Amino acid sequence: MSEMKSEPVILNLGPQHPSTHGVFRLRVTFDGETVVDAEPVMGYLHRGSEKLAEGRSYVQIVTLTDRMDYTASMSNNLAYVSSVEKLAGIDVPERAQYIRVICAELQRIASHLMATGFLLNDLGALATPLMYCFRERERILDMFEMLCGARITLTYMRPGGVLQDAPAEFWPALNTFVNDFPGYLDEIESLISGNEIVLTRTRDVGILTDAQAINASITGPMLRAAGVQWDLRKANPYEIYDRLDFDIPIGALGDTFDRYMVRVLEMRESIKIVEQCIRDIPQGPIRTGTPYFIRPPAGDAYASVESPKGELGFYLVSDGGISPYRCHVRAPSFINITALRDMLVGWKMSDLIIIFGSIDIVLGEVDR
Amino acid sequence: MESLQAGFLDFHSVYGFFDFFLPDGMDWLAFVLAGGLVSFIVINVMVMGTGLYTWFERRVIGRMQARLGPNRWGPFGLLQPIADVLKLMVKEDTVPALADRLVFNIAPVILLVPALLVIAIIPFGDDTFLGRLNIGVLFIIGITSVNTIAVLAGGWASRNKYAMIGAMRGVAMLVSYEVPMALSITGVVLIANSLSLFDVVAAQGVPFWLVQPLGFLVFMAAASAEMSRTPFDQIEAESELGAGYHTEYSGMKFAIFQLAEFMAPLVTSIIATVLFFSGTRGWDPIPGQIWFVLKVFVIMFALLWVRATWPRLRIDQIMAFAWKGLFAMALLNIFVVAVEVMLLQDPNTGALTTSDLWLMAAINWGVTVVTIAFMAKVFGSKQWERPVPTPSPLANMYAEAD
Amino acid sequence: MTRALQGSSVASRINESIPGAATDSNQTDVWVSPQSILEVATFLNGDDALDFSFLTSITSIDYIEYFELVYRLLSMRNNHSVVIKSRCYGREDLSVSSVTSIWQGADFQEREVWDLMGIRFDGHPNLKRILLWEGFPGHPLRKDYLGQDGEMQRPEDLDV
């Protein structure tokens, strides 16, 4: 029998494609169904946020950060205002710090729910797990609406605190959610974690080793799924995380299933954090008085938080004016796809979709 | 064919009706008119039935996904299919510039026709059928495999890489799943001792899904692959290929593809009802037609349940499942059933009594449970334990430097 | 807490190994000469005590008379960090050595710096523009790029 001859096919996956989570484009070379080469092409959502920030005052830039990772605006707000506070030396009242942590953890749950739901959608599960995840996410968005009137682009945090104190109806809603959510998570997990097809599709697929992940500057659930126990909430605690008791879940193999599992476990830890915050939150002011035009002294500051996607950092350079001289975003989604090619080569087309889905990127943050 | 009793809605009775009114020598016109009328009825009933089915599917899946489903147009959203069809009819019909126009245009029709042809021989009731074919089972197996050609034609003619990949997957998968499907039906034929669907129904003193559950499960798995539903929807694979082989279709051609696609579950449910759920048989006073429809709905609901629940398998896993799993199980089923039939059947007439069937059911359920447990052991993942996560030595977030 | 290493101590460690590479330092930052970036990076990554195996970010700032490259490094094993900065004088044909051979994570970030700030990285395997398209006029994050009024200006139209 003669050897079968085949010819590589170049396929443009995206920018309009149901599974690229936005306007991402992958230029993939296939040999049959097997990936031979993959080149990410991005920039379709580039709005020049870093340049725009140079023309805005420090408070106005908060709205720009909402539009980066639009599934986790709270985390973006937090990273940015932390950076401004570090640059200008602004203190934050304790109550505001607690509210910020509650918001950041709720946002983490919302973002991970979305990541999990869309991963299952990429697996071909016809939107059912996605709708289950969105049902819970909806309640978080409702709570955000109580806080600031917005659901997606929140702009809730300000340098020096938060916009306003949580209204009276927020706390009962939060309590109910915290009590209900572990049960709902059990329900979602019972549908997914032990499913034969999910296991067949995800385990041992798209393995990223710990050394590879560190070398490629990968952070967040992807890094932890590779077994690297690294979380900025513990490694470099900000706000009040050093007073809270929680674990950092890690994965065993660094495959797609581990990335899913780490997210589920992180949601459980987030609920623990929120419970402790509800218990401990003190009364008091929620915002330090800051002028509308903050004029930090000349210098630079970098502050980073553990956003749902990874290490989200803002590097601000001030020349003493009312707007930053330079505002750089260390965007986790952008850097996490560095190792994408190494993860994809050799796998089949269906695996490509779920490996990419398990990275969980948001194009607003990739392209900024 | 003179021994056949005329049906309530039957080609011969319609032909006789026209022949009675037309003058002598116009037999050919009666033939044409009867054929036209029957085709008209079949097509319209099936299209309306499919429309109703799309509504049913969207409502049921909506409930399963914690949402409502279509509920605006008409009572309970029942007119939604009509709105959908109107929308698709007024859409622009685009054809890719480099497409093979003839093949591109004919592919939707090739996909739709087999589904309609199958309906012509289905006994919907004791006296409600269109054609009485003595090789009905063979006809079903043969005619339903035509859709492979349509999938390939549609995907190839589109000149689209996504469509091409979808078509290639489709051909590989559909051809593979023909085999277990035909083999699982063989068990039915062995017990019924006939290829006629009427005899198959008549032989089901005990519904065949009870008598040979293994064959039934193989049939349902293969049938869901044949109509490319999750977990076997690699042909379309929305999250990977957009829409698979019909990516480039729009307007009315897309509507025909969708019609064929949504007709497939209906047709499959009807075939499964006839072959495994004793067709029109039920308890009086409810007429057989009603029983038939009820059974069809139950099977459709089960198919929807599967569709709404499970993710999709990878293409190589699907092929492995067909050849290593279903093929072996179907062969085992034929073997067991053949031995039982040989031992139990009446040597002169070849008939099996109801008590024989119950005995076979008891044996076959045992065989099925053992086989599936064995298969799960061989292919399953549950036995595989994940290692306990150990933190990598490359990071220590509690380290205070120096 | 991640400990920010003293800039001066890191600078002296660098100078021990690569004489003259580190030019300046303060509390947290170390300035190195642009020619020595690859050598410094190799040293910082390979040194057992420093062990900077993780590149947090690369960015650049346009200070009109010079561009400053900022490498933010982290040691996950020891949980300490340092900031390496490098000043590149001039506006045209700037280039420094790429560190992608040491940290794969530099790949996209160097491409971003090239795209938006216009600093070339020699030895980068695939130095194409990443967020903007090939042929986009100018590099938008430069201070002399005036694009906010909706007009795109070519670099040659600007007097720097």
Walkthrough of the structure:
- Chain A has a single domain (9-367), classed as Cytochrome-c3 Hydrogenase, chain B (Orthogonal Bundle).
- Chain A contains 15 helices and 8 strands.
- Chain A has helices at 49-53, 61-66, 73-88, 94-122, 128-148, 170-192, 196-202, 210-215, 221-225, 232-235, 256-280, 332-336, 340-344, 349-359, 363-367; strands at 9-13, 25-31, 34-41, 157-158, 161-162, 299-307, 310-318, 326-330.
- In chain A, strands 1-2-3 form a 3-stranded antiparallel β-sheet. A 3-stranded antiparallel β-sheet of chain A has the order 6-7-8.
- In chain A, helix 3 (73-88) packs antiparallel against helix 4, helix 4 (94-122) packs antiparallel against helix 5 (128-148) and helix 11 runs parallel beside helix 14 (349-359).
- The longest helix of chain A is centred in the first third of the chain and has 29 residues, at 94-122.
- Chain B has 402 residues and is mostly helical.
- The termini of chain B are far apart.
- Chain B has helices at residues 11-21, 27-64, 80-90, 101-119, 136-144, 147-157, 161-192, 197-203, 208-211, 213-226, 238-241, 251-276, 288-309, 315-344, 354-379.
- Chain B has 15 helices and no strands.
- By secondary structure, chain C is an alpha/beta fold.
- Chain C has one domain (3-139): Beta Polymerase, domain 2 (2-Layer Sandwich).
- The radius of gyration of chain C is 16 Å and the shape is globular.
- Chain C starts with a strand and ends in a 38-residue tail after the last strand.
- Classes of the chains: A alpha+beta (368), B mainly alpha (402), C alpha/beta (160).
- The interface between B and C is small, with 10 and 10 residues.
| Percentage of β-strand residues of chain C | 25-35%
Average of pLDDT of chain C = 82
Shape estimate of chain C: globular
Whole-number tally of structural domains of chain B: 1
Give me the count of strands of chain B: 0
Q: What value does the Rg of chain B take, in angstroms?
A: 24 Å
Query: In what range is the share of β-strand residues of chain B?
Result: under 5%
Helical element count of chain C? Answer: 3
Q: Tell me, briefly, the overall form of chain B.
A: globular
Summed up, the helix count of chain B is: 15
Q: In the CATH hierarchy, what is the superfamily of chain C?
A: NADH:ubiquinone oxidoreductase Nqo5 subunit
Q: CATH topology of chain C, what is it called? A: Beta Polymerase, domain 2
CATH architecture of chain C: 2-Layer Sandwich
Radius of gyration of chain C in whole Å, from Cα? 16 Å
Q: Structural class of the helices, strands and pairings of chain B? A: mainly alpha
Largest sheet of chain C: 6 strands, mixed
Element string of chain B (H = helix, E = strand):
HHHHHHHHHHHHHHH
